[in-house]
Amino acid sequence: MNAVKTLGQFIIEKQADFPYAKGELSRLLRDLGIAAKIVNREVNKAGLAGIIGDAGSTNVQGESQKKLDIYANEQFLAALQCGGECCILVSEENDDYIYIDSELSKNAKYIVAIDPLDGSSNIDVNVSVGTIFSIYRRKSTDGKATIADVLQRGIDQVAAGYIIYGSSTMLVYTTGKGVNGFTLDPSIGEFCLSHPNMEMPVDGNIYSINEGYYNHFPNGIKKYIKYCQVEDEKSHRPYISRYTGSMVADLHRSLIKGGIFIYPVTARAPNGKLRLVYECNPMAFIVEQAGGKASNGYQRIMELNVDDMHQRSAIVIGSMNMVAKAEELLQKY
Ligand code: P6P
pTM score > 0.85 for this model? Predict the structure, then answer.
């Protein structure tokens, strides 16, 4: 019987991969894991604790905020403030970035960008939701970190991960040396290594897109959807359509089973809906590290310039060969 390896043990063990690491990134990942367990506890009892439903306020996206959105944001901020390794937090729930100005964080080197509770419209109907995080080292070397430290391209991420609060709660992350998944064991309150060296199948037969917007999709995406629906036994088509409304859930499935997730530009979202800094880039880092592919249909997501911390992007992400086919049709039509 293999001994259980906890997230904490794994992080320390892998610290050796970074000869110059002095433990800061390890502690930062630990802090995020702690917040994830606290958020998990509230998500799991959302229906009971009376904290579901709109908080009334709206976030920078103009979306009505569920109370759990706010709660999750507060928990991750608190964990990062206590941990002392993060100097700036960018969050979907905050219009501007939060500078963590404390004695404990005065030498902090890391920038964290987070979607604290992605897919939160699913909370009230008990569909999986998730947290997405992205970690950068500050580029500036003295004084306060500034917006220039925030607006870094995805290729400069030092780590990225997500937590999926589903039938079980998992934390999946990469530091650029592969992808590893940990499942929360509530009986000991620890994330335990359950999916070592995750690899995304290069092919798959599940496509994930909100076909309700079909009429507003670019022609190439319409062609790809029809391609998915054609009968062709050799290529296992027609594919299966799955769309949960939670990017984390749809991408987690694709990571394990193979598949493609697409959120293209539409009439309602001319620049795409998903956020580059704290949704697209971290998920692209994870998917690429697992052998998948992530673009906006034309350019690699992680090479896109970042001009605004809340900027949106179209995204075509998932199994290598499926993304390549979608890109081919997008670029052709
Ligand atoms: P739509 C959730 O709000 C989210 O940001 C992603 O998690 C999800 O994939 C997408 O938006 C759903 O958007 O327009 O299909 O409801």
Answer: yes
